[in-house]
Amino acid sequence: TDIEVNYQDFRNASGESIEVGDGASVNANTGSVSFDRTVYPVPYGNTGSTIFNTHTTDTATTGLPQGDVIVHVRVTDADYNVSAMGEDKIEDANVTLNIERGSNVQFLATYGNTAFYADNAIVEVSPDSGVFEADVTVAFTAGPTTNCPTAFAAGCVLQGDIITVEYTDNYDASGKTQTVTDSATFDLRNG
Questions:
Q1: Do 185 and 158 form a contact (C-beta atoms < 8 A)?
Q2: For a FRET experiment, which of 108, 138, 149, 184 has its CA 20 to 30 Å from that of 73?
Q3: How many CB atoms lie within 10 A of CB 127?
Q4: What pTM does this model have?
Q5: Are the C-beta atoms of residues 158 and 145 closer than 8 Å to each other?
Q6: How far apart, in whole angstroms, are the C-alpha atoms of residue 96 and residue 74?
């Protein structure tokens, strides 16, 4: 469907009557979702290790703090870019993140039309961009419960685990619901 607008100017700059117009097509776009990386470091829990401060006479010890990983999820969907200068949000489509190990799946987060977070909308990164981003914290204990060290009863993220993101586009280019995905792995690297 096209939208057309016509304007009848009864007296233009030269005193003549003219008609001017413009048109635009109305269509939906298929959205996409992606992570900012293909490989993330494995998050680690509090090691309980002792660190001594050798530069002072302080003999207190402290454990190595937990090392969380921040995952950036980007949804590109021009259908939600509704205001040219304002900050738009996706509030009625789902973006779901899971961590997978073999056939075991651990739910991580959902954004969109669920109330997993108090502010569960995905926000546009800049006006009129059509790109929306959410930052998700992945802790060591966010993974499946299988094959984990016994000290972590809540599960863990291990090397080789896969993080997946799924975006349900309510109206793709054909006007139908479509689900698009992306994935990345967790891996350990030598320093």
A1: no
A2: 149
A3: 12
A4: 0.74
A5: no
A6: 12
